[in-house]
Task: structure prediction
Amino acid sequence: MEWTKELQLEMYLQMLRSRRLDERSWVLHRQGKIAFHISAIGHEATQVGAAYGLRRGHDWVAPYYRDLALMLCLGLTPREFALGLFGKSGEPSSLARQMPSHWGLKRANVISTSSPVATQVSHAAGLALAIKLRGDDRVALTTIGEGSTSQGEWYEGLNWAAVHRLPFICVVQNNTYAISVPQKLQMAVPNVADRAAAFGMTGVVVDGNDVLAVHRAVKEAADRARRGDGPTLVEAKTYRPVPHSSDDDDRSYRTREEVEEWKKRDPISLFKSYLEMQGILTNTISEEMESHAMAEADDAVKFAEEAPYPDVEVAKGPVYA
Amino acid sequence: MAEVTLIEAIRQAMDEELARDDRVFITGEDVGPRGGVFRATLGLFDKYGPQRIIDSPLAELSIVGVGIGAALYGLRPICEIQFADFIHPAFNQIVSEAAKMYYRSGGEWTVPMVIRAPYGGGIGGGLYHSQSVEAFFTHVPGLKVVIPSNPYDAKGLLKSAVRDPNPVMFFEPKKGYRLIKGEIPDGEYTVPIGPANVSRAGNDLSVFAYGIMHYYTLQAAEMVAAEGISAEVVDLRTLLPVDKETIIASVKKTGKALIVHEDNLTGGYGAEVAAIIAEEAFTALDAPVKRLAAPDVPAAPFSHPMQDWFMPNPQKIAAAMRELANY
Result:
């Protein structure tokens, strides 16, 4: 698979945009300006690679709460994200009824999501079933953490996809912890993707900190789905170098040494070095992208801080369509 | 006009909606060539094929979850849960997902889906083929809960449910599938979701019921009429949203209220009806509100004498009517 210089730079910029906005969100939380943040730091390669493996805006996506980088690639603006952080009027996913990062963006074919984990998986199977029934040239992709694959929800959704050979992709972002519980207490297999065989679908393990590897795996899965050759389980091995959420303290369940070791494999640093080595990313371009990402985060926060809170009338409904 | 059974009316509704709108499809366990264990979908597989009548894996939560996904894409799923007793694995999908989708997305996403499930006892189904589960769902804003009592309403309400942009729980009294017969018009008609139906006018007391209990209540009303008691019978039909106006108007007319359901008493739907009457028609009451329901045991036992003890029936309803009328 070949990647143009432009595409690689674009993916790098997407990773950077997400990282800077994410870091700013942590700062806002520590400043006491927002109540909650759940972070995509460390997952940018997986999410950007997955997004670019799709026909964005054409294919359908059922994400989960850690998908900031994915959502930015699908067209969520930093301003819209920041409105969610502050619970401000105009937040597009839920009118600020839901916590931050509970995505949903109709214009991008991203369905609304909730907090109980794995519920989005059977929705994605249903989207894929509908795509197949209508004969449409689309794919349904869902994302999930490795801990949530313990849910019966996950098994049932993947089973539907396999039985009906649906145009379905499940990208498992295996960051090795479900809040505090390590992978070995979630499953007795080394790879989530090993379970693909039991469903009768293709399973792929990929380095989740390598954006090009994830992009290739998801693109191949999407091509497979569009050919009518059925679903794919893609497991992206990655790490969460930050706590689960702003309410978590990861010092209680893992060593600083472990975290530092993983930070050496930070997906943005890795891709940056690679692009520099290839002569694709120059200092000038790098600095331009940095200032773009920072300016965008600044603008988003300023915009959301100045935005009004929703009128309490918004809480009342409507409840029924 | 033609006389049909309750289940034939339900089948006709699905058949006509499948023919009318190619977005409509059915999924559930054994709904395909078998035509459903109760034969609700009999013949539909042959008529519409495996793309429209889809046998699901034996897994209730994903029958609903996949239905939600298809509905979000723009299709109109009718999801069959084989027995209401087996709906509980899908509770998360119904309550956390389908019911909240519209509100939680600020109106961006709707779930136009019907979940059909046979409910209730009287068929020797024991603890796990007899349950009445409606009260779990009437507590949930965002859902509509419909329980028909006769073929006319069953067909008209189910057609409305398929066309409704919201998730509709459609519980069918399985004991009445072939027991309850009635006339339905030949042509197209619907019955709106929402309004209750005063199915028998009376002056001495109001009796509120739904499903098979409404069928029994009409029989009981006939029995006590011979003794000079004039009972008004209200078929609630739609439990959520509840038709408060019809309930209050009837109580204001008769001054007495009896609520009948075969779900067990505590926390049952009768409690909500009683609360509405207490809050909004208190001064019209000439007697305490009375509830007749199944006893607070886990579900209807299997053995016939025990099942008969559990189930309200026309005799028990008539006795409760007499007691209230004589208060």
About this structure: Strands of chain A lie at 60-62, 140-145, 168-174, 177-178, 181-182, 202-207, 232-237.
